[in-house]
Structure formats: C-alpha cells, structure tokens
From TrEMBL:
Residues 93-282 form the ABC transmembrane type-1 domain. One of its GO terms (cellular component) is plasma membrane. It comes from the Bacteria. This is ABC transporter permease.
Length: 297
C-alpha cells in the first residue's frame, strides 16, 4: 500500500500530465496561425481608430514635423478639453443622445407591433403589405431625401427634434427581424392566451417582448448606431446649435489654423465613444438576434 505522503503526490503528477496534454491540444500550429491572423486583422481594422487617438494627443507643431513618429512624444490631453471650449460639443452630444434613444425606442415598439400583426393577425393582403414594406429597403435614402425635405419644410418642422425623429420612427429591417423571430413562436400560446381573456396589447408586453429580448438587443444596437451616425439629414434640416447633432457639430471645429486638425481628431474620438460602448456591450445580443429564427426545428 502507498503511504500518505505518496498518495498526496499522485494527484499532483496527474494534474501536471493533464495540464501538459491540455496545453499541447490548445497550442498547436493551427491555433497559433489562426491567432496570428486574427491579431493582424484586428490591427488593420482598428488602425484608423488608433491613428486618430494618437494624432489627437499630439501638439499642432508635432503633426507637421517630418519623420514624425506614430506615437506622440508628449501626450497633450488638454486637446480634449479644448474641444468643448471651441464648440458646444456637449450640446451636440446631448442632442444626438436624445435623437438616437427616441429613434431606437420608437423603432422597437413599431416593429414589434407590426411583426405581431403580420404573424398573428391574419388579415386580407397580409403578404402584399409585408412585401411592400420589404421593398422599401431597396430604395436608397438619397433618392427621397429631397422630397422629404420639401415636405417637412412646408409643415414647418425645420430646426426641431421632431424632424430628426419622426421620419425614422419605423424600420423595415426591424419588422423583418421580429417577424422572422416569431416564426418559431408557437401559435398555441397566443390562442390559449386569447381564450383566457388576454388582450393583444397585454400579450405583446407581458409575453412577447420578454421572449424577443435577443432581437430587441440586435435592433437596439443597429438603430442607435444608425441614428448616431446620421449626417446628411441633420445637415439639411438643422441650422442652429440648439438642435444640431454631434456629427454635424464636429465640422464646427474646422478652421484655418493648424490646431483645428488636432481638435477635429479629438472631437472624432469623443464622438465615437458612445457608439463603441453600445456596440461592445450589445454585440452578443446583436448576434443572437440576427440568428434567431434562422434555424427551425
């Protein structure tokens, strides 16, 4: 029989063997090659962002130096403070947040209600109406932007939050995503809920919306990023700082002096932070929502 001291050494030896086998399985040539490829792709993808951050921390004289290094010699963090002093960037960010959140919430609500109607309420012309909605996705926004501008200008909506929010309260992509997600939803649950006296509104908010969280997360990320990065429409319909969004406000940092380039890059970095945070925290739900309803069975 083994002594107590020998018994204690057996698990340690087994653990060392298992660890060595595990490392051999993980760190093979195929895994190392894939890891290196992923690192190269990430560096190429993030290079514009890293370049903007590096340039925004340089002094104006350092940017125009010949043979300047990629990294700043002495980081100038005061550039980010000067951004808020040169232009009302805080007001622009606030306006963009209001517009983006309002568009995101409205698109989620309208898409859920529309998808519920197409899936559960069998009315005449159901497929035709849905096909017409999907057909709007093939029409580029630039093709109708002039007619939209003439329409809202006649209504007196120029320079207001409603002109930035109301035209984007619905989303054909959102209706499509929710309708595809509902294909896997059992119709018997809806029928039993109706037999128990549950109204359609209560069914949507109590049963349907909690089950559609991945799709809601996917549409939230897509809608927020799309609203945050809008440029052409806010440029046409806003003329004052009270309603101007952050993407238009960055151009206010441009001037004839050399410091404007540094301030513009710092402003771009500041404006990218909300969208990066939303994407980082919502990417998992975005992937789940885009793939929900794709596989049946």
């Amino acid at each position: 029989m083994l002594s107590s001291s020998e018994l204690k050494t057996v698990p340690k030896k087994k653990n060392k063997v298992l660890v060595s086998i595990g490392w051999r399985k993980v760190w093979n040539w195929k895994t190392i090659t894939l890891l290196l490829v992923n690192i190269i792709v990430v560096l190429i993808t993030l290079f514009p962002l890293l370049y903007a951050v590096s340039m925004s921390l340089k002094s104006p004289s350092e940017i125009y130096q010949q043979n300047a290094s990629f990294f700043p010699e002495t980081p100038v963090f005061s550039n980010y403070l000067d951004v808020f002093k040169t232009a009302p960037i805080a007001t622009y960010i606030q306006n963009s947040l209001i517009v983006s959140i309002a568009i995101t919430v409205s698109q989620i609500i309208t898409s859920v209600f529309a998808a519920f109607s197409f899936h559960f309420l069998k009315f005449k012309g159901n497929k035709i109406v849905f096909a017409l909605i999907m057909a709007t996705m093939m029409v580029p926004g630039e093709a109708v932007i002039v007619s939209q501008y003439l329409m809202v200008s006649e209504w007196g909506w120029i320079d207001s939050f409603r002109v930035l929010i109301i035209p984007f309260m619905t989303s054909a992509l959102g209706i499509f995503l929710f309708r595809q997600a509902l294909h896997t939803f059992p119709m018997e649950i809806y029928e039993s809920a109706r037999m128990d006296g549950c109204s359609n509104i209560r069914f949507i908010f109590k049963i349907l919306i909690p089950l559609l969280r991945p799709t809601i997360g996917a549409l939230s990320v897509q809608s927020f990023l799309g609203a945050w990065n809008m440029y052409m429409w806010p440029l046409l319909v806003t003329n004052s700082d009270e309603y101007r969004t952050v993407q238009i406000g960055i151009s206010m940092l441009n001037s004839i002096d050399s410091q404007s380039i540094v301030l513009m890059l710092a402003g771009v970095v500041v404006c990218m932070l909300p969208s990066l945070i939303i994407f980082i925290f919502g990417q998992k739900n975005m992937i789940k929502g885009l793939t929900s309803g794709a596989v049946k069975g």
